[in-house]
Amino acid sequence: MTAFSAEWLQLREGADQAARNSEIANAVSARFALRDAISVVDLGCGTGANLRATASLLPNRQLWRLIDSDPALLDAARIDLIRWADTALREGDELILRKGHADIRVSFSQLDLATDIERAFDGAPALITASALFDLVSETFIKTIARLCTERNAAFYTVLTYNGVQRWSPHRPADNQIASAFHRHQLGDKGFGPAAGPMAPSILADQFRLNGYTVLEGESYWVLGRNDRMLLEELQRGYAMAAAETGIVDAKTIEGWIKVQRSGAEVGHTDTFAAPA
Ligand SMILES: C[S@@+](CC[C@H](N)C(=O)[O-])C[C@H]1O[C@@H](n2cnc3c(N)ncnc32)[C@H](O)[C@@H]1O
Fold it and tell me: Which CATH class is domain 6-276?
């Protein structure tokens, strides 16, 4: 599995949904409760997990535009959304879904957000959303998003931004070394310039507040246990690979670290909702 493979995104979807902060979700729901309809753009949609988790918070008539740079993930999103919906129709490249009481029209755009972010705002969406994206982007990109949302009066809701917390059970002394290397890796360029990594939640909050938005933040930790064995193992493998790429931890330490069987882990994330005051 690679960092953004459909298999990895599908493996983490259940933990992501369980981790979402319900107070922040309620605030999103309350904000749009008086509307009949809403247009939403999902940045870095992957297989469409964010739509599946967010749709129930929004008014019944929803127009979603799912954006990703990876065409294979956009194809996987189509398939996973059809599976998820109660009913699904294809209309050209778009999907018309019914889920519970919601009527959801979905379009798909292949776009490199690092170079084409302004195009994500075509059609004046009321809500810009993303899941597990913002620790990958740069501080400059966050400033641009905050400015574009403000200029267009759009609300902003992003979930599951990694915030730097990781606790493994059982704990091993090398955990701290691996975590430091992982954080070094997190700050590397993921296509948007030097990444904000675990600083992303605080940069997001600062930038939206500077633009006069009201910002709410809440924790959305993964709390993984024995029933999450595959996810724990993939996580461990991913962290070890990232640590190895930095070259700051010796191979023997990494080899020993990856062999430790874990019964659980907590991984810290933050959900952020920012709306015009
Ligand atoms: C960690 S995944 C999250 C996917 C999905 N939001 C979820 O929660 O399952 C990050 C996503 O951002 C997309 N992505 C990364 N860089 C991108 C870019 N420059 N432009 C558009 N999408 C990008 C990846 O293809 C991937 O789908």
Answer: alpha beta
Q: Are 43 and 131 in contact (CB under 8 A)?
A: no
What sign results for the dihedral spanned by CA atoms 198, 132, 2, 138? negative
Q: Cα of 45 to ligand 1 centre, how many Å? A: 6
| CA of 159, closest atom in ligand 1 | 8
Q: What does the pLDDT profile of the chain (277 residues) look like in tens digits?
A: 667 999 999 999 999 999 999 999 999 999 999 999 999 999 999 999 999 999 999 999 999 999 999 999 999 999 999 999 999 999 999 999 999 999 999 999 999 999 999 999 999 999 999 999 999 999 999 999 999 999 999 999 999 999 999 999 999 999 999 999 999 999 999 999 999 999 999 999 999 999 999 999 999 999 999 999 999 999 999 999 999 999 999 999 999 999 999 999 999 999 999 999 8
Helix (H) or strand (E) holding 267: strand 264-276
Angular region, 45: left φ>0, alpha ψ -120 to 50, beta rest: alpha
Cα-to-centroid distance, 171 and ligand 1 (Å): 31
How far is the C-alpha of 141 from the C-alpha of 42, rounded, in Å?
16
Q: Which residues line ligand 1 (CB under 6 A)?
A: 4, 9, 16, 44-46, 49-50, 68-70, 73, 112-114, 131-133, 136, 191
> Domains of the chain: which residue ranges?
6-276
By alpha-carbon position, which residue is closest to atom 17 of ligand 1?
Answer: 69
CB neighbour list of residue 62: distance below 8 Å, 6 or more residues apart: 37, 38, 39, 40, 55, 102, 103, 104, 105
pTM of the model: 0.97
